[in-house]
């Protein structure tokens, strides 16, 4: 349960940058220079997929490093309780306070149909988290996660798992984005029983398979997901900027494998460009 909650959280904060710059098609990048004694690696994940097989080049990078750093420390024993506290809207808000009666009925029908329960039972949860609960329904398979696989390998290798930000940092994003904006995206999904979402996610999986991290950014800047497209600073840019000095600190201490959502890699404010601006040499691993 703890891990599933964490994957849901990662899925709704792994978003995109409006200012894409074309990079080589690769989800694995080598970090060198700027005082590093050993190379570290940056891997772009997709948090929910049908096939989270770790390929040979990624396995070699894991073998060459001595710790794994994800967006959050997913083996934190206090993670589940922290997430549960942060999932609820502040000031006693409920979904019915944010949308019309007609739209509420549509969302309720969506949950009954796909989750086997009424949204009335959980309507005080932030709308983005309600949306995330439906994510496994976008797949025609049993969902898998790269984060789960990376944690498994780290455990097998006796390595520590750390995070670039805290659970509280990620949860705060969904207080900074207006609840009404989050609710409208949920309503849009309800009105076509997630048909558009399923089509979009299938395209995203294909883009990820091709390792086209620039196309992933362009695709995810979709006005149909307004809580994403209108809140890039909170969802992506500010977080990337906060991560870069932490990446440098971890990498200088020991060779590190960093695993973050692939949507964070490309773009002017993407992690790759920000690391280069900080003086690191970042090259695609083919």
Notable features of this structure?
13 helices, alpha/beta, globular, single chain, 286 residues, 6 strands
Write a structural description.
This protein has 286 residues and is α/β, with parallel strands linked by helices. The chain has a six-stranded mixed beta sheet, sandwiched between helices. A hairpin with a 7-residue loop joins strand 1 and strand 2. Helix 3 packs parallel to helix 7 and helix 5 runs parallel beside helix 8.
Record the strand order, biggest sheet.
4-3-5-2-1-6
What's the overall average pLDDT, rounded? Answer: 89
> How many strands?
6
Beta percentage is 5-15%
Give the low-confidence spans: 14-20
Termini, distance in Å? Answer: 35 Å
H/E order of the elements? HEEHEHHHHEHHHHHHEHE
The number of helical elements comes to: 13
The helix content, as a percent range, equals 40-55%
Class by SSE composition? alpha/beta
| Shape descriptor | globular
User: How many domains is the backbone divided into?
Assistant: 1
**How can the largest sheet be summarized?**
6 strands, mixed
Computed CA radius of gyration, to the nearest angstrom = 19 Å
């Amino acid at each position: 349960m703890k891990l599933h909650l964490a994957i849901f959280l990662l899925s709704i904060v792994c978003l995109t940058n409006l200012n894409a710059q074309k990079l080589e098609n690769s989800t694995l990048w080598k970090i060198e220079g700027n005082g590093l004694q050993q190379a570290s690696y940056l891997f772009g994940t997709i948090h929910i997929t049908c096939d989270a097989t770790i390929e040979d080049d990624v396995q070699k990078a894991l073998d060459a490093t001595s710790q794994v750093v994800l967006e959050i420390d997913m083996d934190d024993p206090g993670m589940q309780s922290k997430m549960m506290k942060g999932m609820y809207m502040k000031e006693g808000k409920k979904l019915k306070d944010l949308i019309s009666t007609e739209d509420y009925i549509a969302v309720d029908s969506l949950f009954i149909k796909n989750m086997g329960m009424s949204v009335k039972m959980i309507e005080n949860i932030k709308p983005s988290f309600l949306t995330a609960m439906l994510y496994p329904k976008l797949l025609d398979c049993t969902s898998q996660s790269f984060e789960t696989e990376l944690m498994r390998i780290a455990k097998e290798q006796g390595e520590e798992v750390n995070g670039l930000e805290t659970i509280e940092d990620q949860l705060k994003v969904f207080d900074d984005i207006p609840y009404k904006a989050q609710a409208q995206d949920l309503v849009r999904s309800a009105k076509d029983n997630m048909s558009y979402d399923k089509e979009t996610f299938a395209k995203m999986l294909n883009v990820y398979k091709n390792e086209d991290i620039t196309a992933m950014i362009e695709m995810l800047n979709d006005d149909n997901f307004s809580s994403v497209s209108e809140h890039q600073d909170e969802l992506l840019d500010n977080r990337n900027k906060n991560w870069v000095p932490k990446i440098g600190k971890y990498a200088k201490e020991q060779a590190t494998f960093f695993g973050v959502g692939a949507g964070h890699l490309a773009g002017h404010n993407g992690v790759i460009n920000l690391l280069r601006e900080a003086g690191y040499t970042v090259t695609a691993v083919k």
